[in-house]
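Task: complex structure prediction.
Instruction: return structure tokens for all chains below.
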Amino acid sequence: MLDQIYSYREMCDIENVQTLQRGMNFRMNPRYSVILMSRRSNAPYSDSISDDGITIEYEGHDEPKTSYEMNPKLLDQPQQTRNGTLTQNGKFIKAVEDFKNGISESEIVKVYEKILPGVWSLKGLFDLIDYNIKNDGKRNVFVFTLKLSDEQDLTTNEHIDLAHTRLIPSEVKKEVWKRDAGKCVLCGSTKNLHFDHDLPFSRGGTSLTTKNIRLLCAKCNLAKSDKIE
Ligand SMILES: [Zn+2]
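Output:
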């Protein structure tokens, strides 16, 4: 699947979205995030891939043009919006920190590179492993480091959040899936399902028994995490 070429339309169809506008798309899919990069001379960010295709340095995103009258290229890249929610930069940074602190596995990121207008090349699946803050002489920018992942198989079409469920033994997952009949336990949806820790893993909830694990759809999970935070 490495370096396959897709039209923009094909790429959107693969990712099951109408449009792909943003470069950074944290957890766009329950299983992975998507990054669109470009190394063309007129690209707005300076992203790079090592010659062996294994390491990517990806520049974080600027303050949206609409929110300030100043040139975004003169402003530090934002980690939060003014109302305190995480920007895409902030979400990717949190994923790096959770990974480094052993709270979660590295975030899996699918990377497409624009090679011509409307033509995209799939670079593969990468692990998001680090970020740095670089001063470009005018302001601070984030630089994310991604390494080609051992896992390159996204051919299966199960709607399961693999990146966040690796710690749950597969016996437990099978049992929970059966018990919850492949549906969100709150709303009955069969889309964007994943295994949820009823008591969060970060608060001591266990992965080892089915009692603390349930199926939730992305929407109900979002409502739940809003409540917790
Ligand atoms: Zn639901």
